[in-house]
Structure prediction request, 75 residues.
Amino acid sequence: MNADAAKQLATALAIGFGAIGPGIGIGIIGGKAVEALGRNPDAESSIRTNMILAIAFAEAVSIYALVVALILKFV
Prediction:
């Protein structure tokens, strides 16, 4: 395996593994938020605020993985 192929493989693995965790996490967050809304519809604004905040934190992890993948690709 030459260096260019290894670099491309490392880039693909970095973004692949780095995006799978946040993707699963966002799905769990959304599912639990819908369950909470079904149980207590009056708390919609509080649930929505906390859900958006949690999704933003999970998405930040995916962005870090993207940055690492871009660094691997272009350096």
Q: What stands out?
A: The radius of gyration is 17 Å.
